[in-house]
Write a structure and sequence with these properties.
Layout: H1 4-18, H2 24-38, E1 43-50, E2 55-63, H3 68-74, E3 78-80, H4 84-92, E4 96-98, H5 110-115, E5 122-129, E6 132-140, H6 149-210, H7 222-247
Antiparallel strand pairs: 1-2, 1-6, 2-3, 4-5, 5-6
Length: 250
């Protein structure tokens, strides 16, 4: 069993590292690996809920080096969010330790069957967010010294930190996508305006020359100024889009 000082050190270290992640995959990989190490477990997985289908899915799982194939199979598994110990924890918003999963009526064996893993015992905590529970974190077959009440409290606190970091990284990723889309739209619109402006200007000049009119009268043509304005506006949009590219980290 870990001491109070050990638990505080772990929480400080994990919280500090989680705050630095903006990439969801890197965040989840670190969170599951570190949690597995803390509890000396055979594996650790995050199960997130897809609300539209009300299903659990594994975005990432950290297994021991002896079973890398299990992590790959877990990433393809989905099951109803009201099934299994994970479903019970999600619904009851409670952190639990199940010492004998095979004889627990809440246990859902479908995941083990598909992943070819063997879950004998399980620590499970809800991932709480401001909008409600977004999923659960499972510690599979934790070490014999990682099953006390203090360890449940440690997992619950870690789960809260992970959920908060996940929300932040998800928001960052959403904003990143919106900024990229806005850049692309600005670049396309700007390039289109420049093209329209060039066509207007060139057409005005060619038409003026075709009618053999004095060049001194060319500035009086309204279409020429419309084209010039379009070129300036389009160039400005393209410059703004390139400025965003240099000034942001996205």
């Amino acid at each position: 069993m870990t001491t109070a000082a050990d638990r505080l050190h772990v929480l400080y270290d994990v919280n500090r590292r989680l705050a630095a992640f903006t990439d969801l995959d890197e965040l989840l990989l670190y969170a599951t690996r570190r949690t597995r190490e803390v509890f000396a477990a055979e594996g650790c997985g995050l199960l997130l809920v897809e609300r539209q289908r009300n299903e659990f899915y594994f975005p990432v799982a950290s297994q021991t080096a002896a079973s890398p194939a299990s992590a790959a199979r877990l990433s393809e598994i989905r099951f109803p969010a009201d099934k299994g110990i994970a479903g019970w924890v999600l619904a009851h918003d409670e952190t639990i330790f199940v010492e004998d999963t095979i004889n627990d009526p809440r246990f859902y064996p479908g995941v083990d069957q598909k992943s070819q893993a063997a879950t004998h015992s399980l620590l499970c905590a809800p991932l709480r967010s401001q909008a409600g529970n977004i999923g659960v974190i499972e510690v599979i077959n934790p070490g014999s010294t990682s099953r006390g009440r203090e360890d449940l409290e440690l997992l619950e606190t870690l789960a809260a930190d992970i959920a908060l970091a996940y929300e932040k990284a998800a928001l960052y990723e959403q904003l990143r996508g919106e900024v990229i889309s806005l850049r692309q739209a600005s670049t396309i619109a700007g390039s289109g305006l420049v093209g329209v402006g060039l066509v207007c200007c060139l057409g005005t000049v060619l038409g003026h020359m075709a009618w053999a009119l004095p060049l001194s009268e060319l500035p009086t043509r309204p279409v020429l100024w419309v084209g010039a304005a379009a070129i300036l506006a389009g160039s400005g949009l393209v410059a703004v889009a390139r400025g965003w590219l240099r000034s942001t980290r996205f």
